[in-house]
Amino acid sequence: MRRTATAPALLALIGLACSDSSAPELTPGSFNMALVGDVSRSISGSRAEFGEGAAPGTNLTTWVLELTGGPAGIDGAAFVSPGGQPGNGEFDIVWFEDPGEIPDDSYGAVVVVNPDGASAGFVGVGRSGTLTITTSSASSMKGSFEFEAEGLVAFPGGGSELGVVLVTGEFDALPAPEPATRLTSRLARLHVGGPPR
């Protein structure tokens, strides 16, 4: 489902998240991402890939955009839809517990940021937002995203609690060099219980 408007309060938070001018310039296969809210972190990475593969534990073929980076190369986000690769446009990000629940014209999102030093981490599922595609072809996908995610805040010394973050970013993705079954493995490692509040 295409989005036509964004709430003013969300726009204000997006402005805060996007105000970091120190983010690296995008090159093919890279991304920049920021979290604000219960966890505030900035993540950049040199692995932005897209492709199709079977969703974990199902026969469902899904389209996946995966962004991976951070200090250890294991932080980032993934977007998934049974509807295949999108064309240009703005698309809803919706809450899901199983990829089969996502409408063909919408996208599910997950975010994983591990604790680093004194900084807390976060793992969660998008509950609302937008994926914007500005370039979509067999060899390239470019765009941006903004979504609110609910999940677990992971503290550096151990322990966790429920939390909410606003995730914003941009990407310049390349085709995955292998079937995206590897990409969808991120979904198999995530479980955030309960419906969105």
The proportion of strand residues reads: over 45%
Instruction: Please give the share of residues in helix.
Output: under 10%
Stretches with pLDDT under 50, minimum 5 residues: 1-21, 181-197
Number of domains: 1
3D shape: globular
Order of helices and strands: HEEEEEEEEEEH
Classification by helices and strands: mainly beta
Walkthrough of the structure:
This protein has 197 residues and is mainly β. Helices cover 9% and strands 48% of the residues. It is built from two helices and ten strands. Strands 3-4-5-7-8-9-10 form a seven-stranded mixed barrel. β9 (141-154) and β10 form a beta hairpin. The two termini are 21 Å apart. 42% of the residues are buried. Mean pLDDT is 79; it is low at 1-21 and 181-197.
Helices and strands in order:
Blueprint lengths: L7 H10 L12 E8 L3 E5 L1 E8 L6 E9 L5 E7 L7 E6 L13 E6 L7 E16 L4 E14 L5 E16 L5 H8 L9
Keywords:
mainly beta; 7-stranded mixed beta barrel; 9% helix; 197 residues; disordered N terminus; 10 strands
